[in-house]
Amino acid sequence: MSKRGFLLWFFAVAAVVAAPRAGAFGPDGHRIAGLLAGPRLCAGASAEVAALGGGESLAELGVWADAVRSMPEWRQSAPWHFMNVADAARAGDLAAARASIAAFRHPPEGDVLEAIERFRRDLANRDLPAARRLDALRFLVHFVVDVHQPLHVGRAEDRGGNTIDVRYGDTVVNLHRFWDTDVIDLAGLSAQRYARRLAPSLRSVDEAARDVDPAAWAAESLALRGAVYALRESPPPIVLDAEYVAAAQRVTAERLARAGERLAATLNQTFCR
Fold it and tell me: For 22-70+83-271, CATH number?
């Protein structure tokens, strides 16, 4: 391994160990979506992913973007994992959420929607160096999943739930961390078993292929904001009751299933048209 390669590996591993887990859908969420997407790839997409990724599966390629976000050369990627959007005019109304996303003005530092489109273009451009296309693949796989987590289409005032402390049982975390990681961990399943449980609920490949608009995915996340913030009024940490936790688990399972479908559909559209 070259010196540069060793340093990249070292800092990526250090970031996984040291970084807080509230910055994006947790590692298991990305692995679950990748496990769902992998078997649904067309032959061309499967071959491209294998060639660019050096044999790494989508389940592992998807965790890279979080591992490197604290590295100096990728520090600018932090804003690409989310977008801050004001509440839709009518909470829970998908049409209102779509209008809010359509009117959204992308900040100069970028955001999750801008990043998805940019890295999708880079991945499709075979004239670019393989190393740049590999980065594009890793980022695209990650961000397609991130935009399905409702708090990645979040409120700026509480940093997507990061400043709201909540408690379930004896555990105290912030609201973002709960939706990123804890709600998945509560199932008590490995990523592989979780994905197997979700697999029967996936739509057909043809259905998923018609649904590859990232703005629509973001609108769905925004439309869930009312449910995510259906919190008791109380001093922090706010208690999440059993009903809230169960609803969050249902929403998360559905969002991960859709993320897996749409990740596969996006890669298939890129490589097998």
Answer: 1.10.575.10
Cα–Cα distance for residue pair 254/150, rounded to 1 Å = 12
* pTM, full prediction: 0.90
Please list, in sequence order, all residues whose beta carbon lies within 8 angstroms of the beta carbon of residue 116, skipping any fewer than 6 positions away: 140, 143, 144, 147, 214
Spans of all domains in the chain: 22-70+83-271
Give residue-wise pLDDT tens across range 4-22. Answer: 343 343 333 333 333 333 4
Residues 190-237 have pLDDT tens digits of 999 999 999 999 999 999 999 999 999 999 999 999 999 999 988 999
